[in-house]
Amino acid sequence: MNRRDFLIASAAGAASVAPLSSLAKPRVWKRGEPLKIGVLGVGMRGQVHLKELLRRDDVAITAICDTDPYMIDKALERIAKAGKPKPQVYTGDGDAWRRMYAKSGIDAVFIVTPWELHAVQSIEAMQAKIAVACEVVAGITLDDHWDVLRAQLRTGTPYMLLENVCYRRDVLAALHMARKGLFGEIVHLEGGYQHDLRAVKFNSGEPGKPYGGGYEFGEKGWSEARWRTDHSVRRNGELYPSHGIGPCAMQANIHRGNRFTRLTSYASKARGLHDYIAKNAPEHPNTKVAFKLGDVVQTHLACENGETILLTHDTSLPRPYSLGFRVQGTQGLWMDVNKGIHIEGQSKPHEWDAAEDWFAKHDHPLWQRFADAAKESGHGGMDFFVVNAFVEALRRGEPMPIDIYDAVAWSAITPLSEQSIAEGNRTLDFPDFTDGLWAKRKPIFAFDDRY
Could you report the per-residue pLDDT of 361-398, keeping only the tens digit for each? Predict the structure, then answer.
C-alpha cells in the first residue's frame, strides 16, 4: 500500500465523537519527567519537527508512524545521530497510526500528515486522551471543523494548531508595538500565503528529491507533490489561510473580545500551473490537466469590532516569497512588503521608516529570551517557538496559546471561501465556533517571555 492509499483508507475508519463526560484536571508533568511523544508523519515537515523535539531534554520521541520506508529510515537516522533511543515504528497499512495510538503509550502526538487526514487523526487522538499538536490545517470540510471542535470540548484533551508564523520575529514585534498603542486603534489587517510553489507541487517522483526536477504529481509524485497538488486540481478557494490569518487574528483579538462575522472570496483565472508545465515540458500529459484553483484568491473578512482583514493566496505564479502583512491603525501602520513603518508624530510626514529600526526597539520578550535557542531552528527560528509553546503549555497544564477555537476558525476559512466563490462570490456569515464565549474570553497569546 502506498502512502496516499494509506491515508485515504485510514480516513474511512473515522470514529464518531465520544459522549460528553466530566473533564479531568489537566495533568502537570514533574520536573525531569519527559513527555512521551509520537510523530505521525515523518516526511519533509515531520523531519523538521523531529529536529526540534530531539533538541529538547523534556521530551522523548517514543513512537513514529509513516508508510514511506525512505522517510522512516531518515527519521531513525536522525534520532540515532542525536543519541536518543530508537522509537517504536508503526507502518505498513491504513491502521498503523491507530495502532500507535492504542499501543505506544504516548502522551502527545505531532500530526504532520496530508491535510485530508488531520481531522480524523486529531479526533481519535483526543478520544484516546493523547494531546494533539496538529500541523495546519485543522480539516477540509466545514463539518470536519465542527467535529474536531466537539471532540476537543467533549474530551478536554489539549489541542494546538502548529501555526509557526504567529512567532515570526517581525510579527511578534508588530504585535508588541500594537499592544503598546503605537499604531493606535487597529482598523485594517492584511496577510496571506504568497509563495511560488510550482516546484513543490511538481517533481520527478524520485524519493529524496521533493522540489522540482520534473512535472509529476499524485501517484507519480513524491512528498507534497503526491497529495498537495490534487487540491489545486479539484478545489478553488483560500487553501492555506493560517499563515496569514493567524497573526492578523492575534492582532484583532479574535475569540477574545472579537470575532469574524462575514466572509467574501474571489478567485482569478487559473493559468500558472498549466503554463509552468506547458512551457517546460510541452509534451507531458499533465499539460492536459484542468487546474481549478485560481492563481490569486482573495478573501475579505469582517470583524465584530469593525476591523477588516484581507487574505491573499498566491502559489501558482512566478514571484518572490511574501506573506504580505499589513497592520494599520489610527496612528500608523506596518507593511512587510516594503519593510516599512510609519507612526504619526514620530515618522516624517508621508515617509516610511525602516521597520527594522522600530522592531529593534520593540523586540518581543520571547525573542529577547530565546533568540539564541531558536538560532538553528527551521523557518528563521519560528519552529522552535511553536514547538516550545506546545510542550511548555502541555507540561504546565495551561491553555494552549493557539487553541481549538483558533484552529477551527482559521482553518474553516478554506471551505467557506470555496463556498463563497462557487456561489458567485456570495458573502457568508461566519460561524461562531465559540457559541458566544468570544465576548468574555481574554487574550492570552504571547504576553510575556514564557512561551
Answer: 999 999 999 999 999 898 999 999 999 999 999 999 99
Domain 166-364+404-439: give its CATH architecture: 2-Layer Sandwich (3.30)
Contact call for residues 340 and 348 (beta carbons, < 8 A): no
Return d(Cα 259, Cα 444) in angstroms, integer.
Answer: 15
Q: Look up the CATH architecture of domain 3-20+28-157.
A: 3-Layer(aba) Sandwich (3.40)
| All residues at 6 or more sequence positions from 228 whose CB lies less than 8 Å from its CB, including other chains | 114, 115, 200, 201
Collapsing DSSP to helix, strand or coil, 337 comes out as coil
**Nearest partner of 263 among 429, 451, 415, judged by Cα:** 429
| pTM of the model as a whole | 0.94
Nearest Cα to Cα of residue 210 among 201, 219, 2: 201
Q: Where are the domains of the chain?
A: 3-20+28-157, 166-364+404-439
- Give the tens place of pLDDT for each residue, 299-356: 999 999 999 999 999 999 999 999 999 999 999 999 999 999 999 999 999 999 999 9
List, in order, residues 6 or more apart from 23 with CB less than 8 Å away: 155, 156
> Residue 176 belongs to what H/E stretch?
helix 169-179
Q: Which residues touch 219 (CB under 8 Å, ≥6 apart)?
A: 2, 4, 226
DSSP secondary-structure letter at 285?
G
